[in-house]
Write a structure and sequence with these properties.
heterotrimer, A mainly alpha (about 100), B mainly alpha (about 475), C mainly alpha (about 525), A: mainly alpha, Helix Hairpins, elongated, B: about 475 residues, mainly alpha, 20 helices
C-alpha cells in the first residue's frame, strides 16, 4: 500500500523536523513548538492508520493527544514565563541536549 | 436510551477499579476550588494534613479495589498494580511530610503544591494499571506534567525554575518520541489496536512485513521510558533537575515516578512486547549496563550529597532494568517491586536527614557530615543504616532486594551484565562508605545542631525501623513479595 | 529452660548471643565505657566457658558432625536455602580458637583505647558472633551473609580507633574484600541456579555436569574471594595497611581469626565443590603461596615498624596455609589446618605484645628501641618465646605446622612438589632472620640513649593482667608443639575423606561430609542430651 508508506514517510519527516528543532534551537518557544510538531507527526500516523483499518480508536487517541498538547504547552509557557521573570531571557543555553 | 444505559452499566462495572486515583483527582480539584477559598492566608499549612489524609484514603481505596480488568482492557488491577500503587502512595505520603520544614521556612505553603502531588500520584496509580498504550501514555503525562511544575515550584529561585525548564523541555521531547513510537506500533498492527495483549500477538505476526516499523516503534517507546526513569544515556536532565528542585521534590522524583514508570516499563515490555523481545533485549541491556557504570562512577565524584543521591538513583535504575530484562512481567515486576520498596525506605531515610541538616545551609556537601557521629549519634546511626543498606551490604535489607534481582538476571543468562552490576555495586559501596567514613572517622566542627522536627523524626524512625526489621526477616521478604504481587 | 534451649541450639546460641550482646552494649552511653568493657569481657568469657564445656564433651555422629542444626529456611525464586549450622572436625578448633582469643584480646588491650572504648568492645563482641556464624554455616548463602557481616564491624574498628591513615586503611580493607566477595556472589548464584540449592552437596553435583572451562572459571571466582581474605600474593596489599592502622585488638582478631576464614573457606567450600578445577589449579596456587612466603618474608625484613613487620610475616605464614591446601595430601592439609591455629596463636600474641609495647612507648619504630630487655625482662621473655614459636622452633607449635606442610608438599606427587617445598623452607629461614634481627635491635644491645626514644618511656614491666593474658598463650604454644595430636585428631577423618573424594578418578557426586568418618558413637541429639 503505497499511500500508507507515503503517510509514514511524511510523518517521519515531520517528526525529524521536530527532533532536530528541539536539539539545535535555543529559543524556548521554538523548542516548545518543535515538541508539538513531534506530537502532531504521531497524530498523523494515528489518524491515517485508524482510517486505513476503519476503526475510530486511533482518531479518538489523536483527539486526546491534541488536548494533552494544549496542557503541555500551557505548562511549558508558564515555566518559560517564570524563567523570563528571573533571567529576562528565554534563550536556553544550558538546556542543550547535545552537550548533555 | 439504550446507549446511556449501557454506558452507565459499564461505568458501574468498571469504575470501582479506579476509585483510588479518581478520588485523588476529585479531592485535589476540590482542594483548589472551592477549598482554598475557605482557608485564610495564614492557614495554608493545614492543607498538608488534608492532603496527607486524602492521599492515605486514596491509597486505601486502591488497595481494596477489586481485582480485574475494565474500560475495554485499558486498565487492569492485579497484584502488581496494587503493589506499585502502594509504592507511589507511600512515596507521596513521605514527600508531604518531608516538605514541611522547607515550605515553612520559605513561607511557600500553598494548596497547589499538595494538589500537584495528589494529581501526579493519581497519574502514577493509573500508569501502573494501564494495559493499553493509550491509557499508559496519558497516565504518564498526567504524572509528568505535575512534576514539571513541582520542580519549578520555588519560582523565586532561579535554580528551581531553570531545573523545571530543563526537565520540562527534555520531558516534552521524550514524550514526543514515546508517542511517535506508539503511533508506529499502531501502524505496524495495521491501525487495529494499542492494547498490550493484542499488540503482543499482532506484533509477532506483523514482524516479517514491518520489521523496521516494529523495531523503530519499540525502540522509541524504550527511549521514552528511558527518559522517564533516567537511564543512561537519557539521564542528562536528572542531575540538574534533582539539584535544582526543592529537596523534598527531589526525594519524590527519585522515588515515586521511578517506581511507577518502572512498573509500567516492565508491564509494557513484559506483556506487550514479550513476543518481540529479540528487538529490545540488546538495547535495554546497554541501557542497564551504561546506567550502572555511569551512575556509579559519576556519583563517585560528587561533593554534594543531593547530587550523589541523584546519580546513585541512576545506578539503581540500572539494576532495576535487569528486572525488566527478565521479559516476564510477573517475575520481573516482583523483583523490581521489592527493590523499589527497599530503595524507597532507604532513600527517604537519607533524604530526611539531608533535609534536616539542610535547614541551616548544611547537608548539601558531604563535608558537612563531618563527625556527625559525635554530634548526633542517633542521627548518624540512622544514616548509617540507610547508606549501608543502599550500598547493598549484607545482611541489610538492601542486599536481599539486590540478590533477588541478580538471581533473576543470572537465571535468564545475563551473566556479563550481572558481573558488571556487582562490580559497580562495589564502586557504589565506596561512595556510600565514604559518607559513612566522613560521619564516623572525622572530627566534628564546632557548633550546635538544632533538634529534628517531629515529622522528619517520624519518617526517619519508621524507615530505619522498617529497614532493620526487614533485615531480620530479609529472607522472608522474598516469599512475602511473591505473595503480595500475585494479587 | 534456657540451658535446654542451649543444648539443642548450641551453635545458634554461640553465633547470635554475641551479636545481640554486642548490640546491647552498643546502646550503653559513652560515659559507661568501663561497664561496657566489663560486660563485654564477661560476656565473651561466659561464651567461651559455655562453648568449651559443651563442645569438648561432644562426640561425632555417623556423618562426622559433632553438632548439627539443620532446617529449611526460605525459598528464593525457587531455590531452597537452609539454615544449616554444623560443627565438625574442620571447624572445631578454629571455633575454640575464636572463643578463646576474643576475651583474651579484650583483657590484653584493656587500657589501650582512650576514647569510646565501650563501643569498640561492643563491636568486637558482635564481630565474634559473625565470625562464629561464618565458621558454622554450611549453606553457602548463609555463609555469604555471615562472611559479609564481618566487614562492617572491622571497618569501624579500623576507621574509628585506628592510627593516622585509618580512613584509607578502612576503605581499602572494606573495598578489597567487598569486590572479591561480589564476584564470588555471581559465581555462587550461577552455580546455585544450576544446582537448585545452596548446599555444597547439590552444588558439587551440579558442577560435575558442567564443562571443565566453566568449572575453572567458577573455581577462580570462589578462590579469589577466599584468597583476598587469606591474603594470598598478589591480593595481600590491604593487609599491611589494615594491620598497621588497626588498634591492637583489631589486629589480633584480624590475624587470629578473620584471616582464617579464607583458608577455611577454600577447604570447606571451594575445593570440595570444584575438585577437578582445584586439582587443575594446584600448581598456580602453590606457586603463589610460595611467592607469598618468600615475598612476605623479604618485605618484612625491610620494615622499620614492628607492627608492619608482623603484618608482613602474616602474609608469609598464611602462604604456608595455602601451600598445604594445594598439596592435596592428608599431611599437607592437616598441616594447613594446624598452621591456621598456630598463626592465630603466635601472630595474635605478637600483635598483643607489640600493642603492650606501644601503649608504653607510643612508638613502634624499631630504631626507637634498643636494650628493652634490661628494662622489661618479663616482657622480653614472652616476646622471645612467641617469636621463636612464630619462627617455627622445634617444641613450639610453629614447627609442627610448617613441618607438616612442607612434608605434605614434598610427598604430594606433583612434579613441582619437591622444588616448591625446598623454596618454601627458605621462607622459614628468612623468618628466623627478620624476626631475630628485629629482636636483636629492639631488645638487646645498649639502651637507646636518645632522650625521646621509645626505650626511655618504658618504666614498668608487664603487670599482672598482661601476664595473665600471655600465660595461656605460651602454654598453648608449647602444648601445640609437644602434643599436636590433641588438635589434629579432630580434623583427620574429615580431611582424609575430603581428599579421598577429590582424588577419586571418576566424576561423581562429591560428598563434602565424610559419611563413614567415625563409627556411630552418638547422634547429635544424643550428644546434646549428654551435655545437660
Amino acid at each position: 500500500m503505497p499511500s500508507m508508506n507515503m503517510v509514514l514517510i511524511f510523518s517521519f519527516l515531520l517528526f525529524s523536523l521536530g527532533v532536530v528543532g528541539v536539539l539545535i534551537r535555543r529559543n524556548a518557544l521554538i523548542i516548545l513548538m518543535c515538541a508539538e510538531l513531534m506530537l502532531n507527526a504521531a497524530n498523523i500516523n494515528l489518524i491515517a492508520f485508524a482510517r486505513h483499518s476503519g476503526t475510530v480508536a486511533g482518531q479518538a487517541f489523536a483527539l486526546l493527544v491534541m488536548g494533552l498538547a494544549a496542557a503541555e504547552v500551557a505548562i511549558g509557557l508558564a515555566i518559560v514565563v517564570a524563567l523570563y521573570r528571573r533571567k529576562n531571557t528565554i534563550t536556553v543555553d544550558e538546556i542543550h541536549l547535545l552537550k548533555g | 436510551m439504550p446507549f446511556a444505559q449501557s454506558l452507565l452499566e459499564s461505568l458501574g462495572r468498571d469504575l470501582p477499579y479506579l476509585y483510588g486515583p479518581l478520588f485523588l483527582v476529585f479531592a485535589a480539584t476540590l482542594m483548589i476550588w472551592p477549598g482554598d477559598l475557605l482557608v485564610g492566608r495564614t492557614n495554608k499549612r493545614a492543607w498538608s494534613y488534608v492532603a496527607f489524609l486524602v492521599l492515605a484514603a486514596g491509597g486505601a481505596m486502591a488497595l481494596y479495589a477489586p481485582l480485574g480488568q475494565g474500560f475495554s482492557g485499558m486498565f487492569r488491577v492485579d497484584g502488581l498494580t496494587k503493589g506499585f500503587q502502594f509504592l507511589s502512595v507511600l512515596a507521596g505520603l513521605i514527600t508531604i511530610v518531608l516538605s514541611q520544614p522547607q515550605l515553612n521556612a520559605l513561607r511557600e505553603q500553598t494548596v497547589e503544591y499538595y494538589a500537584l502531588i495528589l494529581f501526579s500520584t493519581a497519574g502514577m496509580m493509573l500508569l501502573v494499571g494501564a494495559t493499553d498504550l493509550v491509557s499508559m501514555y496519558f497516565s504518564l503525562e498526567l504524572m509528568a506534567l505535575c512534576i514539571y511544575v513541582l520542580v519549578a515550584y520555588l519560582r523565586h529561585q532561579e535554580r528551581s525554575v531553570e531545573a523545571g525548564m530543563k526537565y520540562f523541555m527534555l520531558g516534552a521531547f521524550s514524550s514526543g518520541i514515546l508517542l511517535y513510537g506508539i503511533s508506529l506500533l499502531f501502524a505496524a498492527t495495521g491501525g487495529l489496536t494499542t492494547n498490550l495483549a493484542e499488540l503482543n500477538e499482532k506484533l509477532a505476526l506483523a514482524t516479517p512485513n514491518h520489521t523496521l516499523l516494529v523495531f523503530a516503534g519499540v525502540l522509541m517507546v524504550l527511549v521514552g521510558f528511558a527518559f522517564k526513569v533516567a537511564a543512561v544515556p537519557f539521564h542528562m536532565w536528572s542531575p540538574d533537575a534533582y539539584e535544582g528542585a526543592p529537596t523534598p521534590i527531589t526525594a519524590f522524583m527519585s522515588m515515586a515516578p521511578k517506581a511507577a514508570a518502572l512498573g509500567a516499563f516492565v508491564r509494557v515490555f513484559g506483556t506487550g512486547f514479550h513476543g518481540v523481545s529479540g528487538e529490545w533485549m540488546l538495547p535495554i541491556s546497554f541501557l542497564a549496563g551504561a546506567s550502572m557504570v555511569l551512575g556509579n562512577v559519576a556519583a563517585l565524584r560528587q561533593q554534594s550529597l543531593k547530587r550523589l543521591l541523584a546519580y546513585s538513583s541512576i545506578a539503581h535504575v540500572g539494576y532495576m532494568l535487569l528486572g525488566v530484562m527478565s521479559a516476564d512481567a510477573q517475575a520481573g515486576g516482583q523483583a523490581i517491586w521489592l527493590y523499589m520498596l527497599t530503595y524507597l525506605l532507604m532513600q527517604s531515610g537519607a533524604f530526611a536527614i539531608l533535609i534536616h541538616l539542610q535547614g541551616k545551609g548544611e547537608g548539601e556537601r558531604i563535608d558537612d557530615f563531618r563527625g556527625l557521629a559525635r554530634r548526633r549519634p542517633v542521627l548518624a546511626f540512622a544514616m548509617l543504616v540507610c547508606l549501608l543498606s543502599l550500598a547493598g551490604i549484607p545482611p541489610l535489607v538492601g542486599f536481599f532486594s539486590k540478590f533477588y534481582l541478580f538471581k533473576l538476571a543470572i537465571e535468564q543468562g545475563h551473566i556479563t551484565l550481572t558481573v558488571l552490576a556487582l562490580l559497580t555495586s562495589a564502586v557504589a559501596a565506596f561512595y556510600y562508605l565514604n559518607v559513612v567514613a566522613t560521619m564516623y572517622f572525622k572530627e566534628a566542627p564546632e557548633g550546635e545542631l538544632k533538634p529534628m522536627g517531629s515529622g522528619l523524626a517520624l519518617i526517619l524512625t519508621v524507615t530505619c525501623a522498617l529497614i532493620l526489621v526487614g533485615t531480620l526477616f530479609g529472607p522472608k521478604l522474598l516469599d512475602w513479595t511473591a505473595k503480595i504481587t500475585l494479587g | 529452660m534456657l540451658t535446654n534451649w542451649i543444648n539443642t541450639h548450641l551453635l545458634t546460641f554461640l553465633t547470635f548471643a554475641p551479636i545481640l550482646w554486642g548490640a546491647l552494649l552498643l546502646c550503653l552511653p559513652e560515659r559507661q565505657a568501663y561497664l561496657a568493657k566489663l560486660l563485654g569481657l564477661l560476656g565473651t568469657l561466659g561464651l567461651a566457658v559455655v562453648g568449651f564445656s559443651l563442645m569438648l564433651r561432644l562426640a561425632p555422629d555417623p556423618s562426622g558432625a559433632l553438632f548439627l542444626e539443620h532446617q529449611p529456611w526460605f525459598t528464593v525464586v525457587g531455590l531452597p536455602v537452609d539454615y544449616h549450622l554444623r560443627l565438625d572436625g574442620l571447624n572445631f578448633w578454629l571455633i575454640l580458637l575464636t572463643l578463646f582469643l576474643v576475651p583474651l584480646t579484650l583483657l590484653g588491650t584493656w587500657n589501650s583505647l582512650k576514647q569510646r572504648s565501650g563501643a569498640a568492645t561492643a563491636l568486637f563482641v558482635m564481630l565474634e558472633g559473625t565470625v562464629l556464624g561464618a565458621l558454622f554455616a554450611q549453606d553457602l548463602l548463609l555463609f555469604y551473609l555471615f562472611w559479609e557481616a564481618m566487614l562492617p564491624p572491622m571497618f569501624f574498628l579500623i576507621g574509628i580507633w585506628g592510627g593516622q591513615d585509618r580512613k584509607y586503611a578502612a576503605n581499602k580493607f572494606m573495598l578489597y574484600t567487598l569486590a572479591g566477595s561480589l564476584l564470588w556472589l555471581v559465581a555462587l548464584l550461577y552455580v546455585a541456579s544450576h544446582a537448585g540449592g545452596f548446599t555444597p552437596e547439590l552444588m558439587g553435583q551440579a558442577v560435575t555436569a558442567m564443562p571443565f572451562g566453566t568449572q575453572c572459571l567458577l573455581f577462580v571466582a570462589f578462590a579469589v574471594a577466599f584468597a583476598i581474605k587469606v591474603p594470598l600474593f598478589p591480593l595481600h596489599t590491604w593487609l599491611p595497611d589494615a594491620h598497621t592502622e588497626a588498634p591492637t585488638a583489631g589486629s589480633v582478631i584480624l590475624a587470629g581469626v578473620l584471616l582464617k576464614l579464607g583458608g577455611y573457606g577454600l577447604l570447606r567450600f571451594a575445593v570440595p565443590i570444584f575438585p577437578q578445577a582445584a586439582l587443575h589449579y594446584a600448581q598456580p596456587l602453590a606457586l603463589l603461596s610460595v611467592i607469598a612466603i618468600i615475598y612476605g618474608a623479604l618485605v618484612a625484613m625491610m620494615q622499620l615498624d614492628i607492627k608492619k613487620l608482623v603484618a608482613y610475616s602474616s602474609v608469609s605464614h598464611m602462604g604456608f596455609v595455602v601451600l598445604g591446601i594445594a598439596s592435596f595430601t592428608v599431611i599437607g592439609v592437616q598441616g594447613a589446618v594446624f598452621q591456621m591455629l598456630n598463626h592465630g596463636i603466635s601472630t595474635g600474641a605478637l600483635f598483643l605484645l607489640v600493642g603492650m609495647l606501644y601503649d608504653r612507648a607510643h612508638t613502634r619504630q624499631i630504631a626507637d628501641f634498643g636494650g628493652v630487655a634490661k628494662r622489661m625482662p618479663i616482657f622480653t621473655f614472652f616476646f622471645l618465646v612467641v617469636t621463636l614459636s612464630s619462627i617455627g622452633l622445634p617444641l613450639t607449635n610453629g614447627f609442627v605446622g610448617e613441618f607438616l606442610i612442607l612434608n605434605g608438599t614434598y610427598v604430594s606427587g606433583f612434579a613441582w612438589g619437591r622444588p616448591m617445598a625446598v623454596v618454601a623452607s627458605l621462607g622459614i629461614l628468612f623468618g628466623a632472620v627478620y624476626l631475630l634481627w628485629m629482636v636483636k635491635r629492639v631488645f638487646w644491645g645498649p639502651e637507646n640513649a636518645a632522650e625521646d626514644s621509645g626505650t626511655a618511656h618504658l618504666h614498668d614491666d608487664l603487670n599482672a593482667r598482661e601476664i595473665a593474658v600471655m600465660v595461656p598463650l605460651v602454654v598453648l604454644i608449647f602444648w601445640m608443639g609437644l602434643h599436636h595430636r590433641t588438635f589434629t585428631a579432630h580434623s583427620e577423618a574429615t580431611v582424609t575423606k575430603l581428599l579421598a573424594d577429590i582424588k577419586a578418578p571418576s566424576p561423581r557426586a562429591v560428598q563434602v561430609i565424610p559419611a563413614d568418618a567415625h563409627p556411630a558413637l552418638h547422634s547429635d541429639h544424643g550428644s546434646s542430651e549428654e551435655a545437660h
